[in-house]
Structure formats: structure tokens, C-alpha cells
Amino acid sequence: MPTDHSSGLPGFDVRWSGGQEHWTTRLNGEVDLFLWHKPAAADVPFRGTILFVHGSSMASQPTFDLSVPGRPDSSAMDWFRARGFDTWTMDNEGYGRSSKHRNINFDIANGADDLAAATEYILPRARSQQLMLYGISSGALKAALFAQRHPGRVARLALDAFVWTGEGSPTLAKRRERMAEWTGSNRRNIDRDFVYSIFNRDHPGTAEDRVIDAFAQAILTLDNSMPTGTYVDMCAKLPVVDPAKIQAATIVMRGEHDGIASIEDLIAFFLKLPNQDKQFSVMRGISHASFQQKNYYNVYHILHAFFTEPAQVYG
Question: Which residue intervals define the domain Serine aminopeptidase S33 in the entry (predicted)?
């Protein structure tokens, strides 16, 4: 029987407000990409432009702009815009409000192509010449591959819940047991229990049930299935990123309890990054989906510090 995941949020209504809807296209108009923009607050100094990149099992707005009653600053986009950042996010092809019609599994490389199209749209409208890029889970892989391909567009790169080779990952080892399922279809079904499994597979208790339930409700408002491409890539095709080719200043953010990658795998990646403006942060009490955790303010703090690091005068 399915578990009862009542959130204690009677009448909770999934809606997003205070932002601006944008659209761009790829492949000569065949693919429509949805973008969501929340401009920097007008009463604080401008600090830069952030593009947030979502993971394998959720679209952009539930991940980065979800307001939960009784949870202050639940929307990362709102928290960062209040501190002077122009904030953008997008639904990759196959997710949320973007096109889903092509007969492909929407893999990591395709997601990096989406980011190329999105940044071509954003940068002419931005107040900064380069972007700050944050990606989580497979979104971190997409962001890293995009930064590798387009170094001139990225000033600072944040990789959260990242994996490089997959060696030593309990999450990917378990996921490989279902490879026939992932390779046999372009999409996989999701439901509320699946969303709970994201939080409970590593270390139950790092996120509040009411937050997970609101997150699940927001995800399922937009999608009842997700592409399989990122799962296939992460289980069978890693590494898809070459750290030696990433020129941007980079932070690797690893939740203490996150099973998507071993510490050893991430440190090996970190050591190969050529830009010595780089950081490695272990986030205490965090598993996966860090913005939805109980310690989300710690995640905001780490990311904000990296994105506001003073310009170097010697190097």
C-alpha cells in the first residue's frame, strides 16, 4: 500500500508569482524552452546574474522557486534576488513546461544544449557579461558540460550533488539494477512515493515531511513522468565531463549524507580543476536535494559566499 504522505498543509496551492515568464527555442524552432526570471531587488546593490539548473526528477520552479507556508525563504530565487542577484531558471527539454514531443530520452548532452540556447537568450538581457551557474545532481553535470563547452559565458560555477565517474556511489549502484527499464523507454513514471524516496534513500530525517510533500505536489503539478536519459548517462556513461577543460571558478558542494557520489570521486575531480579559484564544501546534515533540506540556510550561505567572493587583486 502507498505510504500516506499528508503534509499538514490543507489547501496548499501550487503557484508561482513575482516572476516573469520567458520562452526561447532550439533546433530552428522545433523545441520550445520555458524560462522563469525573478529580477534583482531594486533597493540593494546588483551582485550578478544566476542561472539555476534542475536535476533528473523535477522541473525548475518546484526546485528553485517553491514557497512553503511556515518555511521562511523557501524559494531560493527569492532569497538570492533579495540580495541583489538577477535569478533565472529553465525547464530542460522533456521537463515541466518545455517541449516533450521528441522521441529521445533527453540526456545530459541535450541538457547542455538547452543551456546554450538559454544563455543566448539571457545574456543580451542581463546586466552582467557572464553568468553564475548553479546546477544540482544531473543539473550539475549539465552545467559543468555547458561550462566546458562555453567557457566565456560562465564566471562562477557551483556543482551541488555532483558525480564524476560514479565510482563508490551507492545510489548509482542501486539504480543500475534497473538499467533494462531505463534503456527500454524514454520516460519513467513518478509519483509522491518516488519523491519521498529521493529524501529517504540516504538518510531519512534531513528534510521535513511537509516540505517534501509540498515539493512533490509542485513537481506532480507539472509532470507525472520524467526522462530516462540522465539516469542512463549517470549509470553507464560517466564521466561525461572533463575537469581539466573547465576554466571557471568552481565550487563542489557535497551533502554529508548524499549517496550520489563518494567523497573520493569528487576530490579526484576537484584536484583536476585548473582554475585555482576553487572550493570544496561538505554540507553537514544534508543529503540530496539540498534546497529542500532542514539545513537549507547553510546551503544558501555557502553558495552566496562563493558568488560574492571579492575580486582577486593578485594571482
Answer: 76-291
HEC profile for 274-290? CCCCEEEEEECCCCCCH
Nearest alpha carbon to residue 14 among 110, 88, 96? 96
Q: How far apart are the first and last CA of the chain?
A: 60
Give the pairing type, strands 85-90 and 48-53.
parallel
Q: 88 and 37 in contact (C-beta within 8 Å)?
A: yes
β 154-160/131-136 pair status: parallel
List the domains of the chain with CATH numbers.
20-307 (3.40.50.1820)
Neighbours of 233 (CB within 10 A): 24
Residues 290, 298: Cα–Cα separation, whole Å: 9
**Closest to 96 measured CA to CA, from 50, 140, 147, 52:** 52
Task: Give the HSE-up count for residue 76: Cα atoms under 13 Å, Cβ half-sphere.
Answer: 32
Residue 6 has pLDDT above 50, yes or no: no
Quote the CA–CA distance of 175 and 169 in Å, as a whole number. 10
Residues in the chain: 315
pLDDT interval class at 179 (50, 70, 90) = very high
Q: How far apart are CA 119 and CA 54, in angstroms?
A: 15
CB neighbour list of residue 37: distance below 8 Å, 6 or more residues apart: 19, 20, 22, 86, 87, 88
How far is 60 from 88, CA to CA, in rounded Å? 10
**d(C-alpha 246, C-alpha 135), whole Å:** 14
How large a percentage of the chain has pLDDT more than 70?
A: 95
At 51 the pLDDT is 98
User: Are the beta carbons of 138 and 111 closer than 8 angstroms?
Assistant: yes
